[in-house]
């Protein structure tokens, strides 16, 4: 049968990667920025928690950065970082930062005063209290932010195809157009979606591992009464 | 929750999880080290000594020609890496200048029109002399091939019928019809002299509007076939012209000038044996051959690299 | 940084202010795409979110759908649909709606679910019908959160609608894509500025809508 899926894995040579190579490249281009965003967001969020006056301006600045379309970000960066992976990864790291800072700040702030007081009474210093009490309790909120950042990052990498073969699986989209081979576009969309779902599942698993005190499978919301947590941040996916 | 025992337990949990995460990240990095190492994160830095970087623009023929150049160089023992699908000439020229790309398939007259929009194009030799004079001092062009692939203003069958345009019609004949027509082309066509600007200044054509598509690729072909645009910038080697009965308008004022496939090279990056190899390719490549090779890639969906290798073999250049 | 110079050069060039490629036309197209996509996404997300939130059923299915929809790459979908179906508004609407439904759906569900159960029970005890409970008790209390979901969706749409230009549609993305191929930073930066401003205007509109629509009693909580 001369089916539609003929040549599904037949990656044009000008992409210079096999299908698996593209997947590896895509994961690297998508996940390293999230990691970088997280590493930057943790201290920044802590500063925002420590100095309350800092949070509104940080939030304002990140909102404006977030409103800049990623493609424009790429194009302006080309002059500084060339047509390279770095040009794709810097904006993604910024977007991750933008999602993660409010998630961490809200998570850390949601720790009840009495818990903090108890920790202090037990002789915990501020650093130890932060690392062993506040951060673990904030884990569900942080991971919710990470899920959004990861999904958005994986989707956005594809746009790198527009700046010269820097879009990993997204390059398949450009190739699909150039050679009029729709099956390559199907491959790109399906593979990207599966990667996003797998990464999301891993993050959910990570949350279960990191928060053994929470009932498995529970969404981060108590049933009734008690302290209501803010819903999962839905912001920032493009 | 905050008892010492509990908290130390939760700490080991965290350390464990962090270790897992780090291992995963390391595996990720290691697993991906097959990634494109030719991509130097510092733009402008020259390619490694002895390695020739062959670039291509974002359309199928450019990729094919880059593959032909690259494989011909490899056959003569030159180390080659590819940097494909970079973008438009506006982008690739900058990368040629700063040495991140060493060799790029170009079209002599189109390149001249980019370097000097007002230049007259009387003969291929004169064009090449003018290009060499105008090029950045670090760059030069090698011998042009007889193979030609011009930009052209091409109308679809419906439009040709409506305005009685035939293959002997010229761009000047479009003058009355133009205000009713939408013209399509790559985004850069809008601002190029060999584009809307020249059509206006040379032929007095002012179209109803411009629709940005791709560089003579499937978007443009589809838009013209479906009458989303009535006229478009189509490459003269495009196999769909015959298939869809498009009409290419003649260009008596030579706005689109000469467009012989010509290697643009960074002088310091290419050894003499590489120069010889590319000149040998140019000598063998003519328009008929290019049309055939394009059809293999665009209609028969063969991989450009395979097509390039097969042709080099048949031409005795491998 | 000379980005500001680019911005002022872009906006002071009178050629950028009229015609089919002028700022008013491109802005209008962008707003049209965005409003249409938001309306379609709201028409799907709001009723489903309200209903599931009210009954409390289908939360897991909803989370699954939202995750799956979030995983679909907008740009990839756009290119794929254009290759399969050709040009038009529809290929742009599908990815934008898929992008916007999850935040609206999930936030609406969460908003209705997190309404304090005691007034709901009281209303039910007073003999209110379920539809009245939903619209007169739960909806007013849930409104701020529902609006925030719509706001996220709207901002994402405004920002993402730029990719329509890659498949030759209009909108503000035109400047960014054209600028990329023409090596014209003025256009790229000008287009990005317009999109960012439009996003901030969207924020302001939702803030104002919140002031107008949310009952003062709920707002003060």
From TrEMBL, chain A:
Q: Where in the sequence does UniProt note compositional bias of the Basic residues kind?
A: 220-230
Segments crossing the lipid bilayer = 30-51, 58-80, 86-105, 137-164, 184-210
Domain ABC transmembrane type-1 positions = 23-207
Map out region (Disordered) in residue numbers. Answer: 217-238
List the CDD domains: TM_PBP2
| Chief location bin | membrane
Q: Does the keyword Membrane apply?
A: yes
Q: What keywords tag this UniProt record?
A: Membrane, Transmembrane, Transmembrane helix, Transport
As for membrane topology, the entry says: Multi-pass membrane protein
Question: Domain of life here?
Answer: Bacteria
Q: Which PANTHER family match?
A: GLYCINE BETAINE/L-PROLINE TRANSPORT SYSTEM PERMEASE PROTEIN PROW, OSMOPROTECTANT IMPORT PERMEASE PROTEIN OSMW
Q: Which family does it belong to?
A: Belongs to the binding-protein-dependent transport system permease family.
**This protein's name:** ABC transporter permease
Q: Which organism is it from?
A: Streptomyces lomondensis
Taxonomic lineage per UniProt?
Bacteria, Bacillati, Actinomycetota, Actinomycetes, Kitasatosporales
From TrEMBL, chain B:
**Which Gene3D superfamilies does this UniProt record tie to the protein?**
Osmoprotection protein (prox), domain 2 (3.40.190.120), Periplasmic binding protein-like II (3.40.190.10)
Signal peptide positions are: 1-29
Where is the ABC-type glycine betaine transport system substrate-binding domain positioned along the sequence?
51-313
* InterPro entries, per database record: ABC_Gly_betaine_transp_sub-bd (IPR007210)
Keywords on record: Signal
Name of this chain's protein: Glycine/betaine ABC transporter substrate-binding protein
Q: What organism, scientifically named, is this protein from? A: Streptomyces lomondensis
TrEMBL record, chain C:
Task: Identify the species of origin.
Answer: Streptomyces lomondensis
- What highest taxon heads this organism's lineage? Bacteria
Q: Which residues form a coiled coil?
A: none
Against Pfam families, the record matches this protein to:
BPD_transp_1
What is the recorded name of this protein?
ABC transporter permease
The protein's predominant localisation is membrane
Tell me which UniProt keywords the record has, alphabetically: Membrane, Transmembrane, Transmembrane helix, Transport
Q: Which residues cross the membrane?
A: 31-50, 157-177, 189-209
Any idea where the ABC transmembrane type-1 domain is?
27-206
Give the family per the record: Belongs to the binding-protein-dependent transport system permease family.
Q: Where in the cell is it found?
A: Cell membrane; Membrane
Q: Which CDD domains did the record assign?
A: TM_PBP2 (cd06261)
């Amino acid at each position: 049968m001369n089916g539609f899926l003929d040549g599904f894995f037949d990656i044009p040579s000008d992409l210079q990667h096999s299908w698996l190579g593209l997947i590896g490249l895509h994961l690297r281009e998508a996940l390293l920025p999230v990691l970088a965003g997280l590493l930057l967001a943790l201290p920044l969020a802590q500063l925002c928690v420590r100095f309350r006056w800092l949070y509104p301006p940080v939030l304002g600045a990140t909102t404006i950065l977030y409103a800049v379309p990623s493609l424009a970000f790429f194009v302006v960066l080309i002059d500084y970082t060339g047509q390279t992976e770095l040009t794709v990864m810097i904006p993604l790291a910024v977007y991750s930062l933008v999602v993660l800072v409010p998630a961490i700040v809200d998570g850390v702030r949601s720790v009840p005063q009495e818990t903090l007081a108890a920790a202090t009474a037990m002789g915990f210093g501020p650093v130890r209290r932060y690392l062993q009490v506040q951060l673990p309790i904030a884990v569900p909120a942080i991971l919710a932010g990470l899920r959004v950042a990861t999904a958005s990052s994986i989707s956005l990498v594809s746009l790198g195809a527009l700046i010269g073969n820097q879009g990993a699986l997204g390059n398949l989209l450009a190739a699909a157009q150039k050679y009029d081979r729709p099956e390559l576009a199907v491959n790109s969309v399906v593979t990207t979606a599966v990667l996003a779902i797998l990464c999301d599942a891993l993050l959910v698993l990570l949350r279960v591992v990191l928060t053994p005190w929470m009932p498995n499978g529970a969404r981060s919301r108590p049933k009734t009464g008690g302290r209501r947590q803010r819903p999962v941040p839905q912001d920032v996916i493009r | 929750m905050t008892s010492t025992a509990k908290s130390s337990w939760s700490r080991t949990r965290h350390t464990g999880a962090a270790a897992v995460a780090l291992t995963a990240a390391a595996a990720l990095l290691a697993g991906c080290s097959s990634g494109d190492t030719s991509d130097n994160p510092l733009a402008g830095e020259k390619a490694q000594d002895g390695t020739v970087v062959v670039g291509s623009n974002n359309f199928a023929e450019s990729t094919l020609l880059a593959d032909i150049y690259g494989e011909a160089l490899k056959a003569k023992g030159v180390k080659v890496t590819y940097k494909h699908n970079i973008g438009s000439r506006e982008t690739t020229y900058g990368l040629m200048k700063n040495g991140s790309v060493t060799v790029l398939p170009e079209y002599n007259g189109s390149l001249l029109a980019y370097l000097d929009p007002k230049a007259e194009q009387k003969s291929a030799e004169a064009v090449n002399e003018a290009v060499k004079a105008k090029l950045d001092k670090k760059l030069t062009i090698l011998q042009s091939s007889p193979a030609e692939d011009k930009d052209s203003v091409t109308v679809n069958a419906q439009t040709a019928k409506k305005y009685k345009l035939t293959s002997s019609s010229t761009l000047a004949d479009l003058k009355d019809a133009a205000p009713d027509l939408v013209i399509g082309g790559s985004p850069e066509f809008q601002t190029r002299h060999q584009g809307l600007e020249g059509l206006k200044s040379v032929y007095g054509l002012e179209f109803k509007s411009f629709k940005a598509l791709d560089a003579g690729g499937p978007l443009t072909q589809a838009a013209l076939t479906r009458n989303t645009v009535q006229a478009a910038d189509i490459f003269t080697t495009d196999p769909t012209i015959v298939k869809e009965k498009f009409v290419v308008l003649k260009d008596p004022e030579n706005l689109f000038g000469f467009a012989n496939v010509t290697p643009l090279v960074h002088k310091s990056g290419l050894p003499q044996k590489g120069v010889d190899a590319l000149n040998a390719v140019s000598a063998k490549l003519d328009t008929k051959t290019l049309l055939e090779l394009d059809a293999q890639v665009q209609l028969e969906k063969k991989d450009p690299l395979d097509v390039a290798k097969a042709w080099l073999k048949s031409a005795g250049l491998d | 940084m000379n980005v500001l110079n680019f911005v002022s050069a872009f906006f002071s060039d009178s050629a950028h202010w009229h015609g089919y490629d002028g700022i008013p036309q491109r802005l209008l197209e962008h707003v049209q795409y965005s409003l249409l996509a938001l309306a379609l996404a709201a028409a799907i997300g709001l009723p489903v979110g309200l209903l599931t939130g009210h009954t409390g059923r289908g939360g897991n299915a909803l989370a699954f759908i939202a995750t799956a929809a979030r995983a679909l790459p907008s740009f990839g979908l756009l290119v794929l649909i254009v290759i399969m179906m050709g040009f038009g508004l529809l290929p742009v609407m599908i990815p934008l709606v898929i992008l916007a439904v999850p935040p609206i759906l999930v936030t609406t569900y969460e908003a209705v679910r997190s309404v304090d159960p005691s007034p709901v029970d009281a209303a039910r005890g007073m003999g209110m019908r379920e539809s009245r409970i939903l619209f007169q008790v739960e909806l007013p209390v849930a409104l701020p959160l529902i609006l925030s979901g719509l706001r996220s969706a709207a901002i994402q749409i405004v920002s993402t609608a730029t990719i329509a230009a890659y498949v030759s549609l209009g909108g503000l993305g035109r400047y960014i894509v054209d600028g990329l191929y023409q090596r014209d930073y003025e256009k790229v930066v000008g287009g990005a500025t317009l999109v960012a401003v439009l996003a901030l205007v969207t924020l302001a509109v939702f803030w104002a809508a919140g002031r107008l629509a949310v009952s003062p009693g709920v707002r003060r909580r």
